Amino acid sequence: MDEAGRGACAGPLVVASCVLRTTDSARFAELTDSKLLTPTSRERLYELLVRRAPDYAVVVVPAAEVDALGVHAANVEGMRRAVARLASHPGYVLTDGFGIPGLTAPSVPVRKGDRAVACVAAASVLAKVTRDRIMSELDGSYGGYGFAVHKGYSTAEHSEALRQQGPSEVHRWSYANVASAAAEHGLRPPHRVARSVAAVRRLSEREDAAEPVELVSSGGLQPDVGQNGYARYATGS
């Protein structure tokens, strides 16, 4: 299991789970961390995986839910959903870097799992390709930000677009750079936000902040976006 988009400041967080056989290593010999592969290689592996992997699931957690829960809680929840949507019932789940509570099977964290374990690398590819496709689609609906190029990550081009236009509804308003750009334009979040400490600190330093700032605990928040917010992108379930 692995995710894509955790560090992006726009667009969804995508989590994938993938079941492989012990004999699949030769069939998917190219598999490694999706970030180390070219876009062409990722697309080729993606198509191979969705055809030949015994089981897989992809869950898309929209930006609004990331903002409501906080990115770590949203990541954990996405992983729970990705395991729950598998048709099979694995005896254990390998995760990239840290264990996940609340799964239907015990989680086993593997350091740099997307480079060391084939099924984690496969999940990395499934998540990355799905998310890249979504960001290219969003680029057509939210012009001027360059989503098709930087995929929602913070780049010089993206930062300049935020400065000029302010954030869109698919940005993560809980992130410090997005919250700061929103304040510059006098914009309020379009959905419930559990702001990060960094975002609160940056906004609090501004005398002309658009609204009072408050650190909100994500523990008791309920996401404003339900299953329909991500199901149209979900595959393999």
Task: Give an overview of the whole structure.
Its cofactor is Mg(2+); Mn(2+). It is an enzyme of class 3 (hydrolase). The chain is an alpha+beta fold and 237 residues long. The protein folds into 2 domains: 2-140 and 224-231, Nucleotidyltransferase, domain 5; 143-204, no CATH class. Helices cover 41% and strands 11% of the residues. It has 10 helices and 5 strands, in the order ββαβααββααααααα. It has helices at 39-52, 63-69, 71-84, 113-116, 118-141, 147-150, 156-165, 176-184, 197-204, 228-231, and strands at 2-4, 13-19, 55-61, 93-96, 107-110. The strands form 2 sheets. It has a 3-stranded antiparallel sheet. A two-stranded parallel ribbon has the order 4-5. Mean pLDDT is 83; it is low at 207-237.
What is the fold's blueprint, element by element?
Blueprint: E1 2-4, E2 13-19, H1 39-52, E3 55-61, H2 63-69, H3 71-84, E4 93-96, E5 107-110, H4 113-116, H5 118-141, H6 147-150, H7 156-165, H8 176-184, H9 197-204, H10 228-231
Parallel strand pairs: 4-5
Antiparallel strand pairs: 1-2, 2-3
GO biological process, one term: mismatch repair
Region (Disordered): 217-237
Binding site for a divalent metal cation: 2-3, 96
